[in-house]
Amino acid sequence: MNSFIGKQILSIIRDGDYAHPGEEEAIELTFQEIPKDRKRLLLDVGCGRGGTAKYLHSHGWGHVIGIDIDEVSIKYAQHQYPMLDFLIGNVIDAPQLINHQFDVIYLFNSFYAFEDQLVALKSLRKVAKESATLLIFDYLDRGGYGQSPQVEEESPFLPHPLSLENLESRLLSTDWSLTSTTDITTQYEEWYSQFMNKVYLKRQEIIEIAGEDGINLVCELYGGLLEAIRGGNLGGLIVKARPRG
Ligand SMILES: C[S@@+](CC[C@H](N)C(=O)[O-])C[C@H]1O[C@@H](n2cnc3c(N)ncnc32)[C@H](O)[C@@H]1O
C-alpha cells in the first residue's frame, strides 16, 4: 500500500492526504506538547502525499520540509502544497540532500517501512539541532505480530514495526535518547475500526480506481490489521526522543 495508487486509495478512505491511522486526531495527539512557532523548522520523513506537512504548517507549528522515496507522491505534494518544500530521497541520504538543522523531526507510519532503521536514525541525528525533538508515530509489535505477520505480494505488509524490547538501546546506539513512549493501541483499534467502516461506505469509489482486486486487497490487509490489534499482537506507539547529551 506504499505505492502511489495505494496511498491514493488511503487518501480517499481518509478524506485527506494521509496514509496513517487517526489522520488529524493522530497529528494533534502526537504534537500536543510541541510548541507552535512559525519560525521553527520541521522535517517530515516519509511524508507521502504531504497532508501531514500541510496540516502542521497551516496550524502554526512551523515550516515543514518533507522527504519521501516515492517520486510520484512527492510530485503530487509539490503540486498540491506549493507553500512547502518536498524532496525525493531515501531517509538515509537526508544529510547529503538537506542543508538544514531541524527543531522537530517526525515520522508518521514510515519508520516501519525503512530497510535499515538504525542507519535512518543515525542520518536523522545528523540533521537535528541539539535542542531537537524526534517523534515517531508507528505500529507496535506487542509480542505476537512477528510470529504471524501479514504478507502483501510475498513481502511483509509491516516489515519492521516498533518493539519496546530494543527501542531504548537502538536509540542510544544511534545517538538519540528516549524521552517517552505513549501506547496508543486503544486509539489504533478505534481508528482501524472506523477505517473499515469507511472502506465499506466508499466501496464504489475504491473499485473505480483499483478494481475488485483493489478493494479485496484493502479488506484483507486492513481487516487483518484490525484483527491483529484486537487479538493483542499489534498496536500503536508514539516515541519521543532527543539528541543524546
Ligand atoms: C504509510 S506511508 C505514510 C505517509 C505519510 N507519513 C502519511 O502519514 O501520510 C509510508 C511512506 O514512507 C515512505 N518511505 C518508505 N521507505 C522510505 C525511505 N527509505 N525513505 C523515505 N521514505 C520512505 C513511503 O514511500 C511512504 O510514502
From TrEMBL:
InterPro entries: Methyltransf_11, SAM-dependent_MTases_sf. Residues 43-135 form the Methyltransferase type domain. It holds the Pfam family Methyltransf_11. GO terms for molecular function: S-adenosylmethionine-dependent methyltransferase activity. CDD domains: AdoMet_MTases. This is Methyltransferase type 11 domain-containing protein. The lineage of its organism: Bacteria, Bacillati, Cyanobacteriota, Cyanophyceae, Neosynechococcales.
